[in-house]
Amino acid sequence: MVFSSLSFIFVFLPAALVFYYIFGALRLRKLSNAALLALSLIFYACSTPKYIVLLLISIFINHISGLLCGAQKTHKKLFLFIGIALDLGLLFYFKYANFFFDNLSLIFGIGSGIAQIALPIGISFFTFQGISYVADVYRGVVKPQKNILNTALYISLFPQLIAGPIVRYSDIETGISDRQESLSLVFDGIIRFCTGLGKKVIIADCAGLVADRIFGLDKSLLSVSLAWLGVGAYTLQIYFDFSGYSDMAIGLGKLFGFHFPENFNYPYISKSISEFWRRWHMTLSAWFRDYVYIPLGGNRCSVKRHIFNMAVVWLLTGLWHGASWSFVVWGGYFALILICEKYVYGGLLEKLPSVIRHIYALILIMVGWSIFCGDSLRFTSELLKTMFFMADKPLINSETLYYITEYKAELILGVVCCLPLTEILERKFMKGRRANTLITLGKAVFGLSVFALSVCFILSSSFSPFIYFRF
Amino acid sequence: MKKIIEILTIICFVAALAAVPIKTFSQPAAERLFYENRRAQPIPQPNVRNLLDGSFQSSLEKGFSDNFVFRDSILAFHTYIDKYILRKKVINDVIWTEDESPLLPRISSAPADIEEIKSKAERMSARMSRIRDITAENGGEFYFVGIPEQYSYFRSKYPDYVFNNDDFLSQQEDILFRILSEKGINYIDMNEEFDKAGRADSFYSFVDHHFTLKGAYETCKCLTEKILSETDKTPAPLSETDFEYKEVPNPYYGSRNRKLMGVYESKEHLFVPEFKERVPFLRTDNNEVRDSVIYNYFMDETAPITYETYMGGDIAETKIETHREELPDLLMFGDSFTNPMEMLLYTSFDESHFLDFRYYDEKSLSEYIKEYKPDIVVMVRDDTRYLDFTGNGKLL
């Protein structure tokens, strides 16, 4: 079940709100938490019923590991190791075993008879949350949670369960036992949810349609501009899809009284790749920083070691996104650029005019997405050759004109929405109490309008004429 | 004031979340979705099996969506936004440029694969040869009638930047008819014939993928003239003086404007033939005698009608007997393009059998020919299906 489905918005969500607020109204925090946990498990079961057991195993492993790490002083490192090994073992089995054995089979001719393993939804997210919890308990950042239902609620809380943001236990530790639902918070939650929904269904899905159709075209129909347009559309799709989903998660969290961390901060206005990664999927970057990069030594070491640390972190970041060589190359690509920005041309870059730096960052980001979006490195190679005039393709063709003519409004809207316009307007013109009311009114009108429009778009995507229309 | 706005917003949002499911679940379940011309997916009942295998969730999404309160109005609103706000020319995969231009489908761009066309055309013509031989062995003549589909007929009217599949359609026409000619198979290429007749817009519908009654008449005329000129079979000649084109006043929903959710205001109407001297006949559909009519009558002139008006739509087997033994017998098979042709052609023959192999599965074509021994066998295909070996292209 995804947040942008009609069954979530009009069946699951209203039922969840009623169920939750019945106990909330009675001020029964334990029961409202139990209700939220039950809803979260139902939510997960709706997507992949059989993997609910896996989620429960993960919860159990992390709860016990947390307890042992918190209670023991002598062997807590061992329990940390065991807990993380079990978490990663599950992740490896379900996410990477196919990839591993496929490559083993390709290289050594062994392991080819291994049955294909389906990927449980959200496993990367809840595994990382579990690891962060155990590690934080080990480091004494948080106290171990004694009630397994609360640990379960932290790991399985449905708004952030399947696509993040990656919430640390410390982010919601107090919220689990002592949170305050309020009208303002619910209002903010609604607006945030509606905004995210609009990002996903009005912009991302449309940009995705353009990207899919362009990437699905026969190679002979590609032109240089069309390849750039396809990658540009994908660039919009992945941002609005992911940030829209994060917005919906943050908004839903607020509806239930939680404050989740921000995940995106207008990444496409970055002037360097280092800045881009400070603005893109911030909870994942922070996770790798705190649980991989710093434990490896961070930047307080020799240059060689620092480069090694960066390479490890970015190759793992690539692998986290998916089990394929494309993602490994994608991680390596960013590792290379970040190392160069740090040690080769970072100083020079900062002296360049802002426009040039924006263009530099955007081109590298788009090249990165062209590696990310393909099913194979062969596809990426062909796409990049076309983009950079190395494939003997025309600059422009009728296909380019078609997509620009038909989708210009959505693409322009997408580009405009990449900019922090609302923040700029609020900062410049909206000061004082009256302005505050105006902002609230504006948000309300905007949020509800986007919600109505989004429902219209979702329904429209289900428009499915019978094949009879052809014959 | 801020508080009031927040409360009102929450009320509006919660009201929407409550009202939509209450109304959707309480209203009678939709059976058909008119504009999408398909059965509506029902809202499923949960049970242990569908909950455990995960199918409940996907069925719920489809069922809820199909039964969503004000679904048609919301889809019409979206179509309106696409047309009048976003100024799109391709809406719901229909190309809608100007109101006086035909509605055309969006075709997925793909280069023409000449080798594949040649190979398929060879295979198709080999099958036609076999049918031609079986027909001849049973005392008849075989004809292939190739008809351009509406988008093919109007392909020059596509906007410059929209793919119209011209290369594929032209290559296919050239290759197939050249091979048919080499193999001595009788054929009529209606694309050529329409050119000779002036390629009038009125031969084809602007809102549907079929030809109009005028286009069907032109095709029947070419067919009967060719039979008369090339064989000793003598079907009664067909002439426009024998009937009048009678306009059906009902609003006409073709396959194209139907997808535009009623936002496109069509002025086009269906026409039916009103014969000056009616040829009496007995009609049998799938072995059951039915009313001697060739098109549906509508008491309510405001009821929307579709191409199914002609002959009552696609039927597996229709037999029309006019009891004029001096005339030859006809077997014609094909997709829905045959329906308006059937309304005209039966007047030229003694006994006419019309088959649609998308639905007819009692006998194979060769078995049918051997048993019925028709004087004339006509295969009708439109050019989007020339090289399709399924349904009416299966042949053997």
Tell me what the structure shows.
The complex is a heterodimer of chains A (471) and B (396). By secondary structure, chain A is mostly helical. Chain A contains 20 helices and no strands. Chain A has helices spanning 6-25, 29-47, 52-71, 76-108, 123-139, 148-156, 158-161, 169-177, 183-215, 224-255, 273-279, 282-296, 303-321, 325-343, 346-351, 354-373, 377-387, 398-417, 421-429, 433-461. Chain A starts with 5 loop residues before the first helix and ends in a 10-residue tail after the last helix. Chain B is of the alpha/beta class and 396 residues long. Chain B folds into two domains: 1-69, no CATH class; 114-393, no CATH class. An eight-stranded mixed β-sheet of chain B has the order 7-6-15-13-14-12-10-11, with helices on both faces. A three-stranded antiparallel β-sheet of chain B has the order 3-4-5. In chain B, α10 (338-345) links the parallel β13 (330-334) and β14 (351-355). In chain B, α5 (114-137) packs parallel to α7. Chain B is elongated. The mean pLDDT of chain B is 92. The interface between A and B is large, with 60 and 66 residues.
